[in-house]
From TrEMBL:
Family, as annotated: Belongs to the sodium:solute symporter (SSF) (TC 2.A.21) family.
Entry keyword set: Cell membrane, Membrane, Transmembrane, Transmembrane helix, Transport
PROSITE patterns attached to this UniProt entry: NA_SOLUT_SYMP_2 (PS00457), NA_SOLUT_SYMP_3 (PS50283)
Lineage top rank: taxon: Bacteria
Location of the protein in the cell: Membrane
Organism: Streptomyces venetus
Segments passing through the bilayer: 6-23, 44-66, 72-95, 116-140, 152-173, 180-197, 217-238, 259-283, 303-332, 362-382, 388-406, 413-435, 441-469
PANTHER family: SODIUM-SOLUTE SYMPORTER-RELATED, SODIUM/PROLINE SYMPORTER-RELATED
Membrane disposition: Multi-pass membrane protein
Name of the protein described by the UniProt record: Sodium:solute symporter
Length: 489
């Protein structure tokens, strides 16, 4: 394993070096949080694909392939569909808003007062998303070094926190681009063909496994519907995803670069399912489906290649973890802490203080420590991820898409939607169980009902607010330099 260790150590050292390099570029709030809104198509596509394809998509995607066959691709496939929908229908308008958070978008659309409550829900989602990725370090480091779970989480989490704190979005962008290349080589170009060959080819795989392993709908219609509801719609509204959209240098880059990334996700989904299916042929009696990825890598790949593929898995986990971490810190600082202190907006563009970078850097460090501690305390990745997406979809999907698509929606309707949907999801998870489908189904319906009823029962949004909103959507208004327009103004 010595060669494999060297590959991994070199990879981790490179991540820290890029964090240090990124620190020299992150001189303003815009540079630190959204890479100066300057990413071109190639880098934007690579980093967007990197953030959405994390440990759940890699280790979990192979595990679903092991358990269900080719239909195990549906979870990651719905993530790709969500990214495609976001890129084609919404990303250009989102990029033109020139904001930093989803809550700022809600304030613009509804005339203020929606930020803190929506920020709390988004913060909870990004925190749990970062936690799930951090927990996944334990699986990878266990294969590499037979390391204690807590130590593995601390080691992997500390590296992500270090480079994210140093350079913010610039460091994360640079590391994500490397991680995208490593994942492409490690998973698609090496592990996929090797796994199929070791399993005897597709003909042997079909002969060895039940026919339902090759049924595209074998995982079940209800499961597919739930994946669409949670992951496809979740891609449309997550702060971690939107913050990447904000890095695009133009709305065209956001649209077409995201489309390329979404298409890549579809290919990655199928690859994971095929690898899992091959693992089922080779190791039919594993204790857990999630062990399939680590087992096939450890047992079937040659020295050196094994290290690169494990680095690819580590890359997948780190990209999602770092993206969720900076999103969590951005929301905590800009949408919650600053608003509670009475600071609604940052200084004008071109007048950004260096202290803002220091403040955001401090919040990344604090949130990173919180993520590591929470990951040590929580043992179930699937449950943590389900809580994250249930809160996101149940609490924020309706007011965000409603604001983009329905001009009659009001701030009171948005607030009611967030509160009712969020509380419904939490209550139903406590009643039916975290992994049940009912919480997100009924929570989303409750959120929609509250939004429609309260919006229609309250005065329409002020015309001045809607006019300013349309100007920003069209890209004709500069980045806000003061607090958002409200009905009283």
């Amino acid at each position: 394993m010595a060669v494999d260790y060297l590959v991994i150590v070199a990879y981790l050292a490179g991540m820290l070096a890029m964090g240090w390099w990124g620190m020299r570029r992150a001189r303003s709030k815009s540079e630190f949080l959204v890479a100066g809104r300057r990413l071109g198509p190639a880098m934007y596509s690579g980093t967007m694909a990197a953030i959405v394809l994390g440990g759940a998509s890699t280790i979990g995607g192979v595990g679903l392939g092991y358990q269900y066959g080719l239909s195990g691709a549906w979870m990651v496939f719905t993530i790709g569909l969500g990214l495609l929908a976001l890129s084609v229908f919404f990303s250009a308008r989102i990029a033109r808003l020139k904001v930093y958070t989803v809550s700022e978008m809600l304030d613009l659309r509804y005339g203020g007062r929606a930020g803190v409550i929506s920020g709390v829900v988004m913060w909870a989602y990004t925190l749990m998303l970062a936690v799930t990725s951090t927990i996944a370090y334990a699986t990878i480091f266990d294969v590499l070094f037979d390391m204690n779970r807590t130590l593995a989480i601390v080691l992997g989490g500390s590296i992500v926190v270090a480079y994210s704190t140093l350079g913010g979005m610039w460091s994360i962008t640079l590391t994500d681009m490397v991680q995208f290349v490593v994942k492409t080589i490690g998973v698609l170009l090496l592990l996929l063909p090797i796994a199929v060959v070791k399993a005897g080819g597709f003909g042997e795989m079909k002969a060895q496994l039940p026919t339902e392993y090759f049924d595209p709908l074998g995982i079940g219609g209800e499961t597919i519907f739930t994946y669409v509801l949670i992951y496809t719609f979740g891609m449309l509204i997550g702060q971690d995803i939107w913050q990447r959209v904000f890095t695009a240098r133009s709305d065209t880059t956001a649209k077409w670069g995201g489309t390329v990334a979404g298409t890549y996700c579809l290919a990655y989904a199928l690859a994971g399912a095929v690898i899992g299916t091959a693992a089922k042929v080779l190791y039919p009696k594993l204790g857990s489906p999630d062990d399939a990825f680590a087992t096939i890598v450890k047992e079937e790949l040659p020295v050196g290649v094994r290290g690169l593929v494990l680095a690819a898995a580590l890359a997948a986990v780190m990209s999602t973890s770092s993206g969720a971490l900076i999103a969590c810190a951005t929301v905590a600082n800009n949408d919650i802490w600053s608003r509670l202190r009475g600071i609604v907006k940052a200084p004008a563009e071109g007048q950004e203080e260096h202290d803002e970078v220091k403040g955001n850097r401090l919040f990344i460090l604090i949130m990173g420590l919180a993520v590591i501690c929470t990951a040590i305390a929580i043992d179930n990745v699937v449950e943590a991820l389900t809580v994250a997406y249930n809160l996101l979809v149940g609490g924020l999907l309706v007011p965000i898409l409603g604001g983009l698509l329905w001009k009659r929606g009001t701030v009171h309707g948005a607030l009611a939607s967030v509160v009712v949907g969020g509380l419904a999801v939490i209550t139903l998870m406590a009643t039916y169980g975290i992994l049940a489908n009912e919480p997100v189904y009924y929570g989303l319906l409750a959120s929609l009902a509250a939004y429609l009823v309260v919006s229609l029962a309250t005065p329409a949004t002020d015309a001045a607010v809607l006019a300013a909103w349309r100007e920003r959507l069209a890209g004709r208004s500069p980045e806000l330099a003061s607090e958002p327009v409200t009905a009283s103004q």
